[in-house]
Design goal:
The protein is an alpha/beta fold. The protein has seven helices and seven strands. Strand 2, helix 3 and strand 3 form a beta-alpha-beta unit.
Length: 220
C-alpha cells in the first residue's frame, strides 16, 4: 500500500495524518507493508540534496512515522526515488541504519539509483555500483521494484524506459546476488513501458528468476 497526499503538498502533520489513515486501512486489510518516500526535493533550491542538514531533518520525521506504524503493527518500506532527497539506495540505507527499527525497511529500486541526477547527490554517495549497493542493503530490504533504463546521451531525457533486460541494469547479476544473500521477499514490476513491453518484462523477469532459483551445478 502507498501513501500519497494531493499533489504531494502539505506539511509534516498532513503527511503523518495521511500515514495514519493508510495504517488503519492496511491493518484492516491485513496488509503488512506501506511504501513511503523520503520527501520530494524543492524546486526553489539547487542540489545536492540528502546532505547532513537534510538528513538531520528527515530522520526525526521518519521516526515519527515509525511510531505510527508500530501502533498498527505494519512495516514501512522507504523507497529511494530520483525526485526525492534520497535517490540512491545508499542514502535510504543511512536512514534505516540510523533508526534501527523493525518497523522500517528499505524498498530498493535499483533503476532509481541508476538514474539519480549526479548534481542532486552529495559526492559521498556516488561510489557504489548497483551490486555493491545491494551487498550493503540486503539485510534491510523489505521489497524491490523492477524496471529498466537505457542511457542515451543524445536524447533530451537521456534515461529511456525500456523493457527489463534491454537496458543498463544488470538484473541477472543482481538477482543472483539477492539469492546468495538469502532474500525471500517480493519483487514487483514497475515497467513504465507500453502494454506489449510490460508483457515482455513479465516473461523476461520470470525467466531470470527461474534461472537464479536453480541450484548451481558447481556446488561441491
Amino acid at each position: 500500500m502507498d501513501i500519497v497526499t494531493r499533489n504531494g503538498t502539505g506539511d509534516i502533520k498532513t503527511h503523518l495524518h495521511a500515514l495514519e489513515n493508510a495504517c488503519q486501512i492496511a491493518h484492516a486489510l491485513h496488509c503488512l507493508t506501506i511504501r513511503i518516500f523520503p520527501f520530494r526535493w524543492p524546486d526553489n533550491r539547487k542540489g545536492p540534496f540528502g546532505t547532513k542538514e537534510d538528513m538531520d531533518r528527515i530522520i526525526p520525521n521518519i521516526k515519527r512515522a515509525i511510531e505510527i506504524a508500530k501502533s498498527y503493527q505494519v512495516t514501512l518500506v522507504l523507497e529511494n526515488c530520483p525526485y526525492s532527497h534520497l535517490p540512491k539506495g545508499e542514502m535510504t540505507l543511512q536512514v534505516v541504519r540510523a533508526l534501527q527499527s523493525s518497523y522500517l525497511k528499505l524498498l530498493w529500486d535499483p533503476a532509481n539509483s541508476y538514474r539519480a541526477i549526479p548534481a542532486n547527490v552529495p559526492k559521498e554517495y556516488m561510489h557504489w555500483n548497483l551490486k555493491e549497493e545491494l551487498e550493503h542493503m540486503a539485510p534491510y530490504i523489505g521489497h524491490i521494484h523492477i524496471k529498466d533504463y537505457r542511457y542515451d546521451a543524445s536524447s533530451p531525457k537521456p534515461f529511456l524506459h525500456v523493457p527489463v533486460g534491454k537496458g543498463d541494469i544488470p538484473y541477472s547479476d543482481l538477482l543472483t546476488s539477492l539469492r546468495e544473500n538469502g532474500y525471500t521477499g517480493s519483487l514487483s514490476l514497475e515497467p513504465e513501458v507500453d502494454g506489449k513491453g510490460s508483457i515482455e518484462c513479465m516473461r523476461v523477469l520470470k525467466k531470470m528468476v527461474n534461472n537464479v532459483s536453480k541450484p548451481s551445478k558447481n556446488i561441491i
